[in-house]
Amino acid sequence: MCAAFAAAQGWTKAAILYATGDTYSSGLRDAFVAAAPDYGIEIVAEQSTSDTMAVDFSSQMATIAASGAQVLFAPYYYDTVGPKIIPQAREAGYDGAIIGADGFDGTQDYAVGDLATYHDVYFTNHYSPEDPSEKVQTFIANYTAAYGAESLNALAALAYDATYMVAQAIETAGSTDRAAIREAMVGMHFVGVTGDMTLDETGTPAKSVAILTFEEQDGKLVQKFVTSQN
Amino acid sequence: MTDFLQQVIIGLRIGSVYALIALGYTMVYGIIRMINFAHGEFIMVGGYTLFFTIPVLMNWGLPAWTSVFAAVVVCAVVGILAELLAYRPVRKKGNRMTALITAIGVSLLLQNLAQAIPFIGPNPKAITQDIFQSGTIDLLGVTTNRTAIFTIVIAAFVMVGLQLFIHKTKLGRAMRAVSENKAASTLVGINVNQTIVVTFAIGAGLAAVGALMYCAQYRAVMTTMGSLLGLKAFVAAVLGGIGLIPGAMLGGILIGLIEALITAYISSSLANALVFVVLIIVLLVKPAGIMGKNVGEKV
């Protein structure tokens, strides 16, 4: 997903920074490395830390900045991305884009110093409340009316979709028999708040993601919806 | 070459923080022969003090870094309390092993206590304010951030100050005397217990300065922030020769440089592991640490 987005932006030279000891981070790194050739992306630098709780990335960033990368893929979590990865990348003189996955969600609450350093940061998430599609906007209006805006996050949307996915499978199967519902889910196409998805034979959905970025607004960093990516 | 210089500056910056914290380990070890494993938690206490005092001080129109004075005071108090409430009673009754276990206990207590306090909690907190003037400067053709320069200069300044204090003042002389021989120090009229308390206060105060540098660079505090930092600083103290003040300084700077250069030129994810390999090799060759022979300098 990140590789597809990078290619769509016209970036061809990518650097990777990931945590070798963390399955989330190294799994995303593997997926990015595997997808990169298909999108014509060359990996010009690959740096790592042993875990996601690392605090000092300056040596890695110096190498990445010197590699001439146009985009840095850094699958870490928000509490590392906000105060450490982005400021340290900019301090090392790296001025390109920084992209990541759903672990970036929440970075806005951990932004430090000059918010202008948070430019060109993009990440993939399950959905964005700012997605203008009718499906998303109807969900947000109904959810907020029933439960308020506070608990409205990607998990709420995922739970909503999961329920309707089962409902659709029951309709297709025409029965509430467990085995029949399971069979109905294979190859099922589902259009939900968190995107369009098709389930494979194991029930794993191949779905679209929302690409988000950060923008400064009234002295605070806020998430902005960029596009959705298949 | 510029790349190399840049990595050296990064190494010096990391190393200065290690050195400051290693001083706390080495001073306490020098004087009561105990590894104060709670020292890493003193950094955490300092970090949270900074987190809470920076907004207040900035409201008063003071620069953010002045909150280090509050952190030094709070850390010194915590250090003194740890000595008076935990280490001293145990030292009177137990042996060196019980003292060591007590230190681990104090470490766990402080860490979990912080997590249990609702307004601290287990989630990391970001320090949004710039502690030092932000931005980068060019030095010998190398781009570096101002925080790195401030860190290296302040650490050098503090270390020179500490050396002068140890060698030129009466209290410093008392500390050296107690570290060499407690019984003889008592004979010549030195208040041993008071000297130990002062040592704890100074060690914890240095941890607070280290916390300032940590927060200036890494911009966030969390309850476990002192664990790995404390461990690395402890390694630095052992590498240089535990109990020796110049050893802690040398060890800290060396560990920082080794870490930065390994990250840059060998493997970034193996940096932590290789630092400890270096320690093992040095200890095999020189069990007392790099400056180990210099016994007369003990504090």
In short:
Chain A is α/β, with parallel strands linked by helices and 230 residues long. Chain A has helices at residues 2-8, 23-35, 58-66, 78-91, 134-147, 154-173, 178-185; strands at residues 13-19, 42-49, 71-73, 97-100, 121-125, 189-192, 195-199, 205-207, 209-217, 220-229.
Task: Give structural notes.
- The complex is a heterodimer of chains A (230) and B (299).
- In chain A, strand 1, helix 2 and strand 2 form a beta-alpha-beta unit.
- By secondary structure, chain A is of the alpha/beta class.
- Helices cover 37% and strands 25% of the residues of chain A.
- A 7-stranded mixed β-sheet of chain A has the order 2-1-3-4-5-9-10, with helices on both faces.
- In chain A, helix 6 packs across helix 7.
- By secondary structure, chain B is mainly alpha-helical.
- Chain B is globular.
- In chain B, helix 5 packs antiparallel against helix 8 and helix 9 packs parallel to helix 11.
- Chain B is built from 11 helices and 4 strands; from the N terminus they run H-H-H-H-E-E-E-H-H-H-H-E-H-H-H.
- Classes of the chains: A alpha/beta (230), B mainly alpha (299).
- At the A-B interface, strand 2, helix 3 and helix 4 of A face helix 1, helix 8, helix 10 and helix 11 of B.
Number of helices of chain A: 7
Q: Please trace the helix and strand order of chain A, writing H or E for each element.
A: HEHEHEHEEHHHEEEEE
Structural class by secondary-structure content of chain A: alpha/beta
Largest interface: A-B, 29 and 35 residues
Q: What's the total count of β strands of chain A? A: 10
Proportion of strand residues of chain B: under 5%
What oligomeric arrangement do these chains adopt? heterodimer
| Low-confidence segments of chain A | none
Overall spatial form of chain A? globular
Q: Order of strands in the sheet with the most strands of chain B?
A: 1-4
In whole angstroms, how far apart are the ends of chain B? Answer: 39 Å
Helix content of chain A: 25-40%
Strand order of the largest sheet of chain A: 2-1-3-4-5-9-10
- What gyration radius of chain B follows from the Cα positions, in whole Å? 19 Å
* Mean of residue pLDDT values of chain B: 90
Q: How many strands, which pairing sense, and closed or not: the largest β-sheet of chain B?
A: 2 strands, antiparallel
